[in-house]
Amino acid sequence: MTPDTNIFKKKLLDEKKLVEQELSTVGRRNPENAADWEPVAPSEETAERDEVADKLESFEENVAIVRQLESRLGEINAALGKIHDGAYGLCAVCGKEIERVRLEANPAAATCKSHMK
Ligand SMILES: [Zn+2]
């Protein structure tokens, strides 16, 4: 384990909190699976005929945002899991150390620069 792991762990936990906060504005946790988030429809309190199209559109937007945030959350959780296992900062493809600059740009990076998708 590198001495800096704690710095990255803090960054990851901070980002996780932010991502979960954002998720709670466009979705809700699946009651049967806490790791799964479901998009929610925007509030229906003011539903009027004219607004139906708009609402469908913003629901579609929520679906897209939830997918994006969920996938980011998955990356963050995977990185936190690696910290726990003492394998943080190692490329998932070649097993070499991930460049420091890359981890600073994205603490959840799972691969080195040569194996970026
Ligand atoms: Zn690699």
UniProtKB/TrEMBL annotation:
Keyword Zinc-finger: yes
Pfam families found in the cross-reference section: zf-dskA_traR
PROSITE patterns noted in UniProt: ZF_DKSA_2
Keyword Metal-binding: yes
Cited InterPro entries: Znf_DskA_TraR
Domain Zinc finger DksA/TraR C4-type: 86-113
A molecular-function term among this protein's GO annotations: zinc ion binding
Residue ranges, annotated region (Disordered): 23-51
Keywords: Metal-binding, Zinc, Zinc-finger
Name of the featured protein: Zinc finger DksA/TraR C4-type domain-containing protein
